[in-house]
TrEMBL record:
<dbReference type="InterPro" id="IPR002177">
    <property type="entry name" value="DPS_DNA-bd"/>
</dbReference>
<feature type="region of interest" description="Disordered">
    <location>
        <begin position="214"/>
        <end position="237"/>
    </location>
</feature>
<keyword id="KW-0238">DNA-binding</keyword>
<protein>
    <submittedName>
        <fullName>Non-specific DNA-binding protein Dps / Iron-binding ferritin-like antioxidant protein / Ferroxidase</fullName>
    </submittedName>
</protein>
<dbReference type="InterPro" id="IPR008331">
    <property type="entry name" value="Ferritin_DPS_dom"/>
</dbReference>
<feature type="region of interest" description="Disordered">
    <location>
        <begin position="33"/>
        <end position="69"/>
    </location>
</feature>
<keyword id="KW-0732">Signal</keyword>
<comment type="similarity">
    <text>Belongs to the Dps family.</text>
</comment>
<dbReference type="InterPro" id="IPR009078">
    <property type="entry name" value="Ferritin-like_SF"/>
</dbReference>
<dbReference type="GO" id="GO:0003677">
    <property type="term" value="F:DNA binding"/>
</dbReference>
<feature type="compositionally biased region" description="Polar residues">
    <location>
        <begin position="214"/>
        <end position="231"/>
    </location>
</feature>
<dbReference type="Pfam" id="PF00210">
    <property type="entry name" value="Ferritin"/>
</dbReference>
<dbReference type="GO" id="GO:0008199">
    <property type="term" value="F:ferric iron binding"/>
</dbReference>
<feature type="compositionally biased region" description="Polar residues">
    <location>
        <begin position="33"/>
        <end position="52"/>
    </location>
</feature>
<dbReference type="InterPro" id="IPR012347">
    <property type="entry name" value="Ferritin-like"/>
</dbReference>
<feature type="signal peptide">
    <location>
        <begin position="1"/>
        <end position="22"/>
    </location>
</feature>
<feature type="domain" description="Ferritin/DPS">
    <location>
        <begin position="76"/>
        <end position="216"/>
    </location>
</feature>
């Protein structure tokens, strides 16, 4: 009986010691190495939505030129870009499947092309985060909570509606990435260069949607021919 009691005390004591040890290790993990955008970026983050990755800690081989503030700026720029690219991955596929109307096949093929390009940009962006020492958060909950992009309508979607939707979606994402390039280009030109490549791709996709509604000397291309005889409303047209 005495032996059992002694064993219980020993086991309880070692469990307590193990718990305290785990806590002290956790407190040593620097908060600056998580994928946490700076508050002053104005961007919602995985952290602000309580969706932090379970293992947001990594040892970088080379930090952006100096200091944790710069690291955080790079990570914020990359994480927010990743989240938006993943939203676009889902939306281009949704439209690829459900686009309907005269331009069905053209848009079906074009959207597949965009999906593949965006998927590569998303992968490059996520892996750049690992390169600078942070985990990347590609979870569905994070996309929903943080992308700040309008959702594409469900069901069959008209060709004119698809064109209008992606003109604005690509415009929004392109502008956001452009701003982030400015945030990081001085301290971390490598990340800035990579974001420039992504932005150029998104701008190209925006043109490829915009061109369907481009005025020419012989045809206003208002979109009325694919939109039930009504011009497709666009800002500035
Ligand atoms: Fe397909």
């Amino acid at each position: 009986m005495k032996q059992t009691l002694l064993l219980s005390v020993l086991l309880f004591g070692s469990a307590l010691a193990g718990g305290a040890g785990a806590q002290s290790v956790a407190s040593q993990i620097p908060a600056t190495s998580v994928n946490m955008p700076q508050p002053n970026t104005g961007q919602p983050s995985a952290q602000s939505t309580k969706t932090a990755s379970p293992l947001p800690y990594n040892v970088p081989s080379r930090l952006p030129s100096s200091g944790t503030d710069n690291l955080q700026k790079s990570v914020a720029a990359l994480q927010n870009t990743l989240t938006e690219l993943q939203a676009l991955q889902l939306q281009t596929k949704q439209a690829h499947w459900n686009v309907s109307g005269t331009l069905f096949y053209t848009l079906h093929e074009l959207l597949q092309d965009h999906y593949e390009g965006i998927s590569k940009y998303a992968d490059d962006t996520a892996e750049r985060m690992l390169s600078v020492g942070a985990s990347s958060d590609g979870r569905a909950i994070t996309i929903v909570a943080s992308s700040r992009l309008p959702e594409i309508p469900g069901g069959f979607i008209d060709d004119a509606q698809v064109i209008q939707f992606f003109i604005y979606q690509y415009e929004t994402v392109g502008q956001r990435i452009f701003q982030r390039i400015g945030d990081v280009e001085k301290a971390d030109p490598t990340t800035a260069n990579q974001l420039q490549e992504v932005e150029a791709g998104i701008e190209k996709y925006q043109w490829q949607m915009r061109a369907f509604l481009q005025n020419t000397p012989t045809d206003p291309n208002s979109g009325s021919d694919i939109n039930n005889n009504t011009p497709v409303p666009l800002r500035g047209k």
